[in-house]
Amino acid sequence: MSQDLVGGSISSDELFEAQARARNFAFSYIVSMALKCIVVLGVPDAIHRHQGPTSLSDLASSLPLPLPLHHSKVDALRRLMRPLVHAGFFTGEDHYYSLTTMGKLLLPGGSLSPFIDLHLDPKMMAQWGMLSSWFLYSSDPVPFEMVRDGMSFWEWLEKAPDQKKAFRGVMIEDSKLVARVLVSECREVFEESWVESLVDVGGGGGTMAVEIAKTFPKLKCTVFDLPRVVANLKEGDGEVVGGSMFEKVPPADIVLLKLILHDWDDEKCLEILKCCREAVSQDDKKKGKVIVIDMVMGHKAVLENHELCQVQYCFDLLMLVHFNGKERNEKEWQSLFMAAGFSDYKIIRSLGPKCLIEAYP
Ligand SMILES: C[S@@+](CC[C@H](N)C(=O)[O-])C[C@H]1O[C@@H](n2cnc3c(N)ncnc32)[C@H](O)[C@@H]1O
Ligand SMILES: O=c1cc(-c2ccc(O)cc2)oc2c(O)c(O)ccc12
Question: Which residues are catalytic (predicted)?
Fold first, then answer.
């Protein structure tokens, strides 16, 4: 430890505590890897199927593995579980394990499994190892492209089927949750008398459009995404249009942009927003609006919540490293809307770390 600290005015207890905290931050990848391991081993599902607190030996014998877990590894399983119990994924009194709410997110079909599959995949972690080199030496736009000879995330996904599946899973899970809140708690957004049509721009797998159309059957919902993305949509996914949001967006009363703008820098966002404003301004006898669902950094709902703040900072870095995108604060959103020619905007409500914003042409 440096001379300034040892023998200075800081107590040794405070120093040891600071050292442990700092080491734990440096070690957080160990918790991430333990998390990934228990998902791969099927631990959350085995506890869930047991239907009650599960002993270590019951857990070890009920894991869905190709071969039974060797008895010499049962104690390693206990040790694997320990930091995850400590982190709050499981309760683990007397080595009887149960799932907490956070742990239930890890179940197959739970909203966290695709997120873990995507972000803790070694292929998806290479760019993080290059972050400092990118700052120091690289002329590539972002670390993601630096380690893939200039290939963008969207181009790369086409060559990486496992990661593409995980990415689609991440988006579907988020959309299911957001759509549930929208159709139950934000009905007024879709129930204005002039609202007859909606286009979900960058609507991916169509989850939002399908869920909104189920609740508001009179609303004509369209999914708009790149041609190669919409080519995968099936009948029953509603109206589908392929194209680029940088060129032309199909006209509608509402344009939805969910988790789109944070992927792009300000210049690209302006191009997208101008096309969207155009799309909701086609009928001069009618109103129109663009709904943005994205993060608002430092929004009041987030400010006093340590977890929401931290997850916003992490997503902001994720966007930087993968896309040269960013998470924006309210002032940055306002500047974008005004520069794209909108007359006004309103933050309607928060949705965890994200907000629902309406922008008016
Ligand atoms: C982060 S995903 C969001 C998907 C969806 N809105 C959601 O929240 O689940 C970004 C989407 O933008 C789409 N996208 C990328 N470039 C696009 C373009 N030029 N035109 C239309 N969509 C595009 C991607 O294919 C992807 O589906
Ligand atoms: O892996 C992700 C996750 C998100 C995401 C999910 C839920 C939120 O509340 C915010 C962000 O967004 C992503 C994204 O826009 C992207 O282009 C790639 C990956 C992810």
Answer: 262 (proton acceptor)
